[in-house]
Amino acid sequence: MERNTYRFILEKAQECLWNYPLRPPMVEPLPILNAQNRVLGEDLFAPYSLPPFDRSPLDGYALLGEDSLGASKKNPKVLTVVDRIPAGHIGRRELQAGECARIFTGAPIPLGANAVLRQEDTESAGETVRLLSEVTPGANISRAGEDVSAGEPILTRGTMIGPAELALLAALGVDPVPCYARPKVGILSTGDEIVALTSPLTPGKIFNSNMYLLAGYVSRDGGEPVLLGSVHDKVELIQARIQEGLAQADLIITTGGVSVGDYDVVKEVHHELGAKGLFTKLDIKPGTPMTASGLGEKLFIGLSGNPGAAAVTYELTVRTLLRNWAGRKDGQLSKVRARLTESFSKISNQRRFLRGRIEWVEGEYRLSFTGKQNPGVMKSLLDCNCLVEVPAQKRLLSDDWVEAILL
């Protein structure tokens, strides 16, 4: 990948990160309840049919449909009740002509029966039952395999497991469930001004919010955050903390220390660790001072210390990287066209990505901005469900049609 020491084109940075050869996650067997919100690690095939036997979908009488021909309220047919079959039990014997079995929802169809007449169309009379309606052969029977046939593919590798998937797996007796292990991602905040939430907030200090922002994103996207806390802007301190993180994680994300000031030392740390620089600086705002380096199957990403900028660049680059790495199918960014409900008049010499909220209104997507767009602002992330690009040297006007990236 060609290196640009000034501003790397966003799309090239995306390609560089999304194709980086990180170590693939292992597949681990998980108890079925622990598989919720995990990614399936193998294609699965049905070990059984669903339902596994012909069964009744209602309460009524299992019989030979031919025995009901001509039955009506005025001319009922009478059959002998020779069996009673609740759900979970099987018939005691094969039915003969003129016989029927009382049957309940979910119970197996007995041998000799080819239809079920619903209870509402009968009148019980002790050991006999009067049929008040005809039922055609094959009616009111849920056939074995009508939902799932034994051997058919049921779920494919990369499927995110939710309640419906859990139910299907349980119905087929699949436990444990083969899932991808969550890739571990180290998260480190840098800056002399940053303190832990357990520390007093003294003048000039701020709490370590970026670590929790990124931990939330990493968990959402299928990773397991490894919290490395915060360190001062010193090469040896940052390097030591990253080396601690490398013992647990293959991807290390830092915030802060990536701009051009005297205390912006993350790129130097990457170099000291022996990593090869992939790119420094992007052609976008916010988040221009983003950097990335690789060391074998390890990857280092440095994001801006400004939370708004860190969020935007994470969503544009790391989101897809991590989802793909975790084995998910929903890694690619989706775009839709939307109509703006307000203007953005500030012109920049770089592409800009604004935080917005998109909604479906009267047959079209409409997009509004979620508040201040400064890189250090966090509040505008609260209602943000999309990003909208503003081309360099352009402004956006209300009612303009724009392309929104869905988050």
- Secondary-structure class: alpha/beta
Low-confidence stretches: 1-5
| Rg, Cα atoms, Å | 32 Å
What shape does the CA trace take? elongated
End-to-end span in angstroms? 28 Å
Beta-strand portion reads: 25-35%
CATH class of the largest domain: Alpha Beta
Total number of distinct structural domains: 4
Please provide the ordered H/E string of secondary-structure elements: HEEEEEEEEEHEEEEHEHEHEEEEHEEEEE
- Residue-averaged pLDDT, rounded? 95
Instruction: State the helical fraction.
Output: 10-25%
CATH architecture of the largest domain: 3-Layer(aba) Sandwich
Strand order of the largest sheet: 6-3-5-4-8-7
Report what the structure shows.
Its EC number is 2.10.1.1. Pathway: Cofactor biosynthesis; molybdopterin biosynthesis. GO terms for molecular function: metal ion binding; molybdopterin molybdotransferase activity. The protein is an alpha/beta fold and 407 residues long. The protein folds into 4 domains: 160 residues, 3-Layer(aba) Sandwich (Molybdenum Cofactor Biosythetic Enzyme, Chain A); 58 residues, Molybdopterin biosynthesis moea protein, domain 2 (Alpha-Beta Complex); 72 residues, Molybdopterin biosynthesis moea protein, domain 3 (Molybdopterin biosynthesis moeA protein, domain 3); 73 residues, MoeA, C-terminal, domain IV (Beta-clip, Beta Barrel). Helices cover 17% and strands 29% of the residues. It contains 6 helices and 24 strands. The strands form 6 sheets. Strands 6-3-5-4-8-7 form a 6-stranded mixed beta sheet, with no helix packed on it. A 6-stranded mixed beta sheet has the order 14-11-15-19-18-16, sandwiched between helices. The longest helix is centred in the last third of the chain and has 19 residues.
